Structures are given as C-alpha cells and as structure tokens.
Fold these 2 entries.
Entry 1:
Amino acid sequence: MMVSEALLEKLSDILNRDPGVNLIPSPSQPTQIEVEQQRLKAQGQWVSAIASLETLLLLTDQEGTSEETPQGLILSAPTPILCHPHLTKTLHRGIFTLQHPHYRWQQFQLTGVSEGTEDNNSPKLTELPIFPQDPLATEQFCLVLTPKFPLLMVLGEDSLGLPAFQFSFAPDMVTQGWLSLRSRLKLVNHPQLAYLDQLVEQFTPVTPSYQVVTEFTRLLLHYCPQIPPIITRKNSYIQDLQENHHQPQSRQQKPLTASQVEETTDIALLQALSHEIRTPLTSIRTMTRLLLRNKDLQPKMTRLLENIDQECSEQINRMELIFKATELKSKSDQDCSVELVKISLDSLFHQSIPRWKKQAQRRNVDLEIGLPKKLPQVVSDPGMLDQVLTGLIEKCTRSLAGGGEIKVQITTAGHQLKLQFQTESHREHNPFKALGQLLLLQPETGSVSLNLDVTKNLFNRLGGKLIVRQRSQQGEIFTIFLPLN
C-alpha cells in the first residue's frame, strides 16, 4: 500500500501552526554543533515529558475506577511510553509501529487480556500501522485523552526544520492531531478505528484546569536532564578562535593544546553516543518487561526475557555512568553537581550484591564478598556510588573472560572505609588498550570501560580515592577509600 506524502502531515507541522508553542526563535543558519545541542536538548525534554506525563496521570487518576473499561486513551510512537502497572491496566493504548507496505492488520495484548473483537472494551495494547514513506515515521509522539485533560507531545522539528520538542494542552490542537492519525487508520480500514472513534467521543478534548498545566510544567522542569555542557563549551571555543583571529596577538587567549582539543571532541562524542544508545535500550527493556507480565509464558521464554532485561539494564547503567563521568570531567570542582550525604552501606550492599553476583556468574567468574558484621555510614552520593561500584565489578568480570575470581574485602582504616577488589584470572589477564582520551577497549571481548584516570576522578568527586596496583599478569587490586560519617 502506497501513501502519498502530500496527503499526510507530521504532528509537529500541526503544532508549528500554533503561535503559542514556539515562543523562542531558533538561531538563523545554525552551526552543526548548535543543531546537535538542540537535538540533545529536545531528546532530554522528551524523556522528561514522559516521566512528567506518567506522574500527572497518577495524580489525576480517579479513585475507585474500574480496570474493566478504559479510563483514557493514549496513542504513541514508536513504542509504549507508560510502565506503571495501574496505568497500563486502566488506559487503552495504541502504538504506531513501522509496517511493510503490504501490511495486514494484527494486534497484540497485555498480560491477562483475552483475545477480543473490536467492540471489546477491556484495555489493551493495540498495534497501529505507520508506513516507511509516511513523514510521521520520523517523529516520536504521544496523544493523550483523559476526562481531566488532553495532551499532544511531539519530538520532531520546529518550523525551521531544527530538532524540537513541543507540546500542547489546547483541545483544538489535540483534535487536529487525532484527525491526522485517524486519516492513516482510515486509509488501511483498520478494524479498531470504530472503537477508537468511540473512545475519542467518550474523552472529547476539554480545556484543562490551570492547575493541571502548571503541575505538568513543574514536573517537566523537575525531570528535565541537564544539557551536556561540553557542546556549548566547544561551540564557544570555536567562536573564540574566530574572534581572536582578528585581535592583536597580545589580547589573544592561550590556545588549547592538541590533546585538549581531542579530549573535548571525545567528551562531546561520548555524551551524544551514550544518549543514542540508552534511548533504544530503554524502549527494548520496557517492551521486555511488558512481555514478562504474561503469566502464560513458558519457563524457557521467561528466562530469555529476563536475560534481555538484565543485559539492557547493565548497558543502560554503563552508558549513564559514561555520561556522568564525561559530564563531571568537563566541569571544574566549583561546578561539581555531586551532592555528598550520609549513606547506609548495609542498604546499598543488600541491594547491589545479588546483582553483582549475577553479573559475575554470567561471565563464569566467582565473586566472594567479605562483609563485617556491622557496616559504618560513609559520606558520598548513593546513586553514583552504586553505579561506580557496579561499573568496577563489570570491568573486573569482563577482564576475566576465561574465568577467574574476584575477592572483595571491606574493612575500616582510621577515618575511612576501605573496599578492596582483588582479581585472580585462571589464565593470562586480558589486556586493555586506550580508546581515545577517556575509554579503554579490551580487544578479546570487545568490552569498553572508563580509563583509570576518569574512574579515579569519579571517586574523587564522590569524596573518596581509588588506588590501582598490578599484582601480576593474572590480576589487579583496586583499593577504594571512602570517608566515614
């Protein structure tokens, strides 16, 4: 089935016609760095908007509502965007996914939902088609209809063709968005169209209260991640070079060395790549967890899905750690955003050790952890400390591809807590090679990790210290000191 682009428009085109959406003009003739910065900013806002929407839906949920009939409608692409069990049970969700031109309608459902016809009112996850030639396939979007508010969110382009995140609570904008989506379903005569029409009529877009819009905006600011500062810094450096070129020699700033320029490029690239990798992995993990809710899965299939979930989580955590490490490396000590607080190590290790052991078992590595009867409190950042320690365990297990042992000993040393990670390989220790200014590559396994200088910087920002000692070709000793409370 061929669809003419002239007959279809993107949802961002609809929002671009609303003068209240684009209040800040885009720069004229933006540089490549400015476009990349705008893209990262828009993607960060999209992720923030998803978290904000889920929170807002829970806050505005009507108590005592039945899960048998839908309490709202959410259409999104290219993946489901809600994870909370209550919302997945009470909202009808349609997912627009890319289809082959010779598309034949089918649908898939969530756990516990029996096969039904188009007039079955039980909430389910319905697959809806987008074709490769449809310009809508280039966007991520979400259209929401509930008794309390309508909402249209789009990660697409602004009126100048630059990456942009836009949203609108205006009923007419949301209605136009639905009509645009409806035209696609009408073209393929989708069997669920009549039922979706009923839901749209039931949840006709209404003007939301100002409290709803205000709360969404507050949540959007709360969840919005910080834009990688290195991109702005790199752009500023290029502008400075252009300005200094026309200034007297005595007034020119000291130029960066080749190593500093290379490191700056590495940081910008790593931050962009880490974001690009995390986004699809998060979608895969979300879909995997939806499938795991199916009680009819065979044990073998459950184990496979659990492995996918674990692998995605490990890769997401690794990318988050790389992103945070590069962000901190690009900041001065005064700009450091790490907040050091009292941490209960009992709670941290209770949650982390089972996960570390699973990591080691998958690599055929024995993990032995010696804990004292009572762990003291330390001063650090709990989230980052868990990520950094998990990353260190991951680095150790991947370096022991032929099997081996990791011994972890935790003791006190004066006013510090001492954590010692000692690796012992069953054969020659796998070497690492430098990959740029910030990463290490292990050719035998393809493993990528932060180099020691960056890792040491992370522990310094956490209020601690890392010392590395090479024992032999068969192992290493990583000693970490953290300040006691």
Note: DSSP finds twelve helices and 16 strands in the chain.
Entry 2:
Amino acid sequence: MHVGVLADMTNFDPMQFSTVNFPLIKNLYDSLIEYTPEGEAIPSLATDWTIAEDHMSVSVTLREGVKFHSGAVLTSADIAATLAKATDPKKGKNVYSTMAIVKDWTTPDDKTVVINFKAATPDRQMLDLLQFVMPIEAAGIETVETVPAGTGAYKLDSRAVGQNIVLTANEDYWRENEPILGEVRFTIFSDDASASAALESGGLEMVYGGAARSAVRLQDAGYQVIRGPGPLVQVFRINATKAPFDNAKFRQAFNYLLDREGILRVGYAGLGEVVALPWAPASPAFDASYTEKYAFNPDKARELFTESGLSKAEMEDWKLLVYGTDAASTTISQIVQAALADLDINIELDVREGSEYVEAQLSGDYKATFGGVGNVQKFPSRVSTNSIYRTANNPVLKDPHPFPEYVAAIERVNTTLGPDEAVKAAYDHLNQVLVESSFAIPTNSYEIGLIVASPKLSGFTLDIDNLLVARTIGFKE
C-alpha cells in the first residue's frame, strides 16, 4: 500500500506524540490497552487489568508470547523501563504529564506490573494511562529515536529523510492473520494538492492527514473519507491577564460573537462538529446542550460588550494573532474580525508565519489567537495537557493561575471516584466554570489524521487518537 503524507516524521520514539509521527506510531508499536471508537477499553498487550478497591493501584497482566521486532519476548521489565522513561521530564516527552499521577510500580513476575498512584484515581484516568503507554523494549530505549523498538504489526525497512519511509510486515506479530498487507510505503509530499493529485492519478492508494476541503472534493469524486473519534478542537485562546481581556464581560461576549457554524463551514469544509466546550463526542464530559445555549448571537455579544464598561478605544486596543501558514486559521480569524466590525469594534490581524507564530503562541505573547487542542476525547482533565488549559506552569496565564475555580474544578474531576451522579456533577461543574471564566472559547472540532482512500481499500480501524492503523487494511477482492 502506498500512502501519501504531508510532513516527515520527527523520530521513532512513541512518546514523541507529535502529529507528524501519527502515521507510524501504531504501526511500529502497540498499547497496553486500546479503546473502541466509543471509548470502551479493550485488551491489547495487556490481557487483563484489575483496579484496586481503594483506587490507589492497578495490576496489569501482559499477553503471553508477544515479541519485539528484535525477537525478544515482552516482559514486565520492558514495561518498567518504559515507565521509567516516561517519568523523565525530557525523555518522557508527551507522555510525561500523563505520568504525574503515578507514584511508583512493581513487577511481581515477568507478566505482571502493578502501578501505584499518588492518590485515589478515577478508573478512566488509569485507563487513559494504560492506553497511552506503548511498551518499548528495555534494550532499545537509549536508541529508540533512530531505531524503532516496538511490538507493532510492521517493522522499519528503510527511511530516506524528507522523501519516504518503508515498513514491512512483522512475521512474528501476535495478532492472528495480521497485518494483511506485506508492505506500507509512505511518500512525503510538500503540500496537500500534490498528494491529492497523486491519489487521483493512481500513484497512491491513500492520503493521510490531508486537508478537509480536498477530502470533500475527493469524496464527491468517489474516494473514501475516513474520520476517526479523536479530532482536535479549535479554540479561541485568550490571554485573560492583559487588557481588554482581563474584563470578564468582554471575554464572555465572545461565547456569542463566534459564528461556529460559519467557522466550521468556511474554515473546515464542514468536516467536524460545532462545539462550545473543549470535548469531542467520545469524551465523558461532552454536553451538546452548551452548543445551543451559546449559539451565535451578535445582540447578546453587544449586550455583554456594553456591560463590560469598556470604552470603544479600550475594546479595540488589541490585535488578533494569526497563524498565517495555516489557511483555516487565517480564514476564521477574518470571520471574527468581520463580526467585531459589525458591532463597530475594529481590530487588526497580527499575521505571523511558521516558527515566529509558534514561538508567540507557546510563550503566551498574544492577547488572543486561534489554536487546536487535543486529548479532548479522553478523561476530561487531560485537556490540561494543552498550554492554554494548564493548571500550573501555564505559559499564557502564568502562575499563580488567575482562575483558581478552574484549577479546583479540574482537581474535583481528578478526585471524584463515584457514584456516577457525583462524577457527572463534577463534569457539569467543570463545564460551567469553563464558560464563565472564558479564557478559552471552543468553536468546532476538526479532523486530525483525516484519511482519503481509494475505493479499492477496506478494513479501516478507527483509533481513539486518529493514528493510522494499517494492520487491518487490505485490498478488496
């Protein structure tokens, strides 16, 4: 199978959970457990897991007979080495923050790992950890960035930096009759138009991570468009420590000013869902009622702008930071600029390209900007792994956090173990705090890892994070 992607990978470390690595991670590695598209936990490298009655630990049983690509058998020592890597602030990379709940772990035997937590921990938070941990062979941890060390359905055959990556089937793979195809070849394209043209000409069977607008066009031409349960959510990020956004009424007005339907339609060709909260439908905190409650309402926005008590000059004293490299971000920023102008509030767009924008966003050097957030389909407090939602060391809002009620709401979610009514109440409270504080205002979900494929392919597996899972894909007879 020949797959087109739009960027080269960073490295082969599964803890480098960057979108450019999404085509490879779940083909070179397996997780301890997996989620169905609906968020149900199912076995993978772990065949069983038992959560202690006091919610202070989970005991994990490893599958028998699983081998790494090197031929070595998976044991609890590999899990221990993987967990040790994940707890290192530098080596743990994107998994490090998820490990914050872990106290330590033990390995009673070769097939058992017991993970102990710092405090009583909700079931779903434990399961998210098990799903996010992808075992690395202990002997390969030091070289994993350049040499894959997983148990996945495919092995690395070759890589030409900036050009292509070839994977071949793992002949010792533990899942019966998988992978279906003997080879997956990734070709790196400089832009979406070139990749789409190669698909149409028959040079590719699939484009992974392409643009929504191209996907809609190709779908109309008979190609398959596969959307997973793990989208990103576009968020209007606000620096609430700077005027005029230090005024609560002024911030809250944007809940009604943002034309979410228009943003989704124009920015993302309608591929996604309108949302007023930072959750995908698979999240246990998802609540569709907020979308209707905070629907586009310029009159309500005008009312709140008036209630803010700010002068016209004060309300116009800011620029909207725009990621000029991304066409969707530019378009939706223009929509907001026009909506403000309709209310006689005139602002400028501060358009920055590439690294200049990324540096400004990650350092909080802005008053407002759009940016996608992830982990929105899992345990609700995972949203705090995103910079604008961090409860500590927040690069935008700084320390101490200016919204202690938000920090407390996240902590309540993390410490409410049951019954179900209490858990739901904790989620509802967090949602209410999010819209009242309004330091981040979601507009819509949008596709990450979008698949556009030839009608000749079948057998797609939907991953909870929208990573590409190639082991079940084959050609129709």
Note: The chain has a mean pLDDT of 96.
